[in-house]
């Protein structure tokens, strides 16, 4: 990192203050709820904090997002740096108040620290610093941050449509999704550069439980949600996971390396081992169902005496989505649960690990962090980058922030936090990404 700092002097204290103030703006998105004033306060803060960005970059004024254009020497193969600004509600008992932006124990705590204000903070700090140096990028750079990613809102789609309508050429999109991951396994002595190259398809259902068998509706719903659901499809190592294991294998001791070299023979034991070692990532191996509270937006027509919730059935691109949906409906029917489909997202497109976007990202990360093991993997959820698939030449999902598995586990959970010293290399990553155009 020292070579990168020869001229530019990172300001860790400033970056920490920026992120804490961003967290203090409680930009919560939830179906049926939105406090517009918090988003106004958030924008007012960013405009004061980053005067060069908001005076020298063109505000494209697209509804539902921050969307800025930094004019470069060429408009071909533009770079899009994006990370959404909205956050999910902060439920549960937190170690530190979720919207206080507390700096403690060497970490910055609060809703949005991981998902994804840390990376947006780093994007803005990188661009502001380059503008202060009067740097002109070789290609146009777009900064995009949706206000409604968490509810699949129109911010990012509106920006993509604007680009299409205006003939913008996009070479690379870098959005949230991966991380610089501290060695996740005891036997692995290197950090991973986990780059998301695909997303899952999903179907959202409104599920409704009614009273019966001597139980009220809420009890029946609770029992259904907490039951272990049956298998919705085959567990398997996706092509992305096979490539991940292949790249990690040379750094693992026996017999793990031998198992991976005979991956077809040892697929089931490898899935069992990884599920045990990385319990938070079980969803990567096949179709699954998760449950979230139903908002007033989707329960407006629910009759009295009915207990509602939302079920999300999701699959990897190599899984059979229709089969998973059918099995879930059959499972719900057997438990006397009514099901109504609300929406579906069918993912397509897998970023090639040997492609230009992946290789460029790997090169920049190694320059900033030193040698990492660059691995592809399937994103468990969805990102705004999906709207660029088929339009941009390359779509990478990576928040270049160094995290532990425990910190990634705070995603959409309580006690969300990132290390204070993780912000400097994240800023350097985006600076180098822009300078390398």
Keywords for this structure?
Aminopeptidase, 13 helices, 2 domains, Alpha-Beta Plaits, alpha/beta, 437 residues
Which value, in Å, is the CA radius of gyration? 22 Å
Unreliable runs: none
User: For the largest beta sheet, what order do the strands appear in spatially?
Assistant: 1-2-6-3-7-15
Tally of alpha and pi helices: 13
Structural class, by secondary structure, is alpha/beta
**DSSP summary, beta strand count:** 17
Portion of residues in beta strands equals 15-25%
Specify the CATH class of the largest domain: Alpha Beta
Task: Explain this structure.
By secondary structure, the protein is an alpha/beta fold. The chain has two domains: 3-180 and 349-435, 3-Layer(aba) Sandwich (Aminopeptidase), CATH 3.40.630; 198-345, Alpha-Beta Plaits. It has 13 helices and 17 strands. The strands form four sheets. It has a six-stranded mixed β-sheet, sandwiched between helices. Strands 14-9-8-16 form a four-stranded mixed β-sheet. A four-stranded antiparallel β-sheet has the order 11-12-10-13. A hairpin with a 5-residue loop joins strand 1 and strand 2. Helix 1 packs across helix 4.
Task: Provide a brief overview of the structure.
By secondary structure, the chain is an alpha/beta fold. It has helices at 12-24, 36-49, 51-56, 113-132, 155-165, 217-226, 239-248, 256-261, 267-277, 321-334, 356-369, 405-408, 423-435, and strands at residues 58-59, 65-70, 74-82, 102-104, 107-109, 139-146, 170-175, 179-181, 192-198, 201-210, 288-292, 306-315, 337-345, 373-378, 395-397, 402-403, 417-419.
């Amino acid at each position: 990192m020292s070579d990168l700092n020869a001229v530019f002097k990172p300001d860790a204290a400033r970056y920490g203050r920026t992120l804490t103030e961003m967290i203090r703006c409680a930009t919560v998105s939830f179906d049926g709820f939105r406090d517009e004033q918090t988003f106004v306060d958030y924008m007012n803060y960013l405009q004061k904090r980053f005067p060069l960005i908001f005076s020298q970059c063109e505000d494209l004024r697209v509804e539902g997002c921050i969307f800025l254009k930094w004019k470069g020497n060429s408009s071909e193969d533009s770079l899009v740096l994006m990370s959404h600004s909205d956050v999910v509600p902060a439920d549960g008992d937190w170690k530190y108040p979720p919207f206080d932006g507390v700096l403690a124990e060497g970490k910055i705590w609060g809703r949005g620290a991981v998902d994804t204000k840390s990376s947006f903070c780093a994007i803005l700090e990188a661009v502001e610093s380059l503008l202060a140096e009067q740097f002109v990028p070789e290609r146009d750079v777009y900064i995009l941050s949706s206000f409604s990613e968490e509810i699949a809102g129109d911010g990012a789609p509106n920006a993509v449509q604007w680009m299409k309508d205006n003939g913008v050429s996009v070479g690379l999109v870098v959005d949230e999704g991966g991380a610089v991951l501290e060695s996740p396994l005891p036997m692995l002595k290197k950090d991973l550069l986990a780059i998301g190259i695909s997303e899952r398809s999903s179907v959202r259902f409104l599920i409704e439980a009614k009273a019966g068998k001597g139980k009220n509706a809420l009890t029946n719903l609770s029992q259904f949600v907490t039951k272990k659901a049956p298998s919705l499809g085959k567990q398997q190592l996706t092509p992305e996971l096979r490539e991940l294991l292949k790249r990690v294998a040379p750094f693992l001791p026996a017999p793990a390396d031998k198992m991976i070299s005979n991956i077809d023979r040892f697929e089931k034991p490898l899935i069992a081992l990884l599920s045990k070692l990385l319990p938070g990532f079980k969803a990567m191996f096949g179709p699954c169902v998760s449950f979230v509270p139903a908002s007033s937006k989707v329960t407006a027509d629910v009759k009295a005496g009915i207990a509602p919730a939302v079920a999300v059935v999701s699959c990897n691109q190599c899984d059979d989505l229709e089969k998973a949906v059918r099995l879930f409906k059959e499972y719900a029917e057997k438990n006397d649960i009514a099901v109504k489909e609300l929406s579906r997202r069918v993912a397509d497109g897998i970023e090639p690990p040997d492609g230009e976007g992946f290789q460029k990202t790997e090169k920049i990360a190694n320059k900033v962090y030193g040698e990492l093991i660059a691995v592809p993997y399937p994103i468990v959820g969805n990102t705004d980058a999906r709207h660029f698939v088929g339009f941009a030449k390359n779509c990478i999902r990576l928040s270049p922030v160094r995290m532990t598995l425990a910190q990634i586990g705070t995603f959409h959970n309580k006690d969300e936090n990132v290390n204070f010293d993780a912000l400097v290399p994240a800023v350097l990553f985006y600076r180098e990404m822009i300078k390398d155009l």
